[in-house]
UniProtKB/TrEMBL annotation:
CDD domains per record: DNA_BRE_C
Gene3D superfamilies: Intergrase catalytic core (1.10.443.10)
Protein name as catalogued: Site-specific integrase/recombinase
All residue ranges annotated as the Tyr recombinase domain in the record: 1-103
Transmembrane regions listed in the UniProt entry: none
Superkingdom of origin: Bacteria
Keywords: DNA recombination
InterPro entries per UniProt: DNA_brk_join_enz (IPR011010), Integrase-like_cat_sf (IPR013762), Integrase_catalytic (IPR002104)
Any matching Pfam family: Phage_integrase
GO-annotated molecular function: DNA binding
UniProt GO BP: DNA integration; DNA recombination
Amino acid sequence: MKEQLKKYIAIRGYVETDALFVTVDNTPLSNRALQNRVEKYGKEAQLKGVRCSCHTFRHTFAKLYVQQGANIFELQTILGHTSMEIVKTYVNLFGTDVRDRHKEFSPLKVLEQKR
């Protein structure tokens, strides 16, 4: 992703805004316009069985972040949430991924090994 963003910035060129994505007249792209573009490109890519949206990207990032072993408290900070309850909805803490991680790191595993 980093390399793709570098290419985009090189093509886009210098603009007098802190916005990453800009319109053809170099004004910041609105949130709604960005959402529309993501949905449009998802349709053009003929993605099936998943909603292509900014929210889906955010949710997928959160889930993959935790699946790779990251700390959910760090994730909470990255996502900018004040409540852990909202973070739980992103990573589906009661799903099979968490159960698998629990089995892997459960204190009971240590007790079983000592027998």
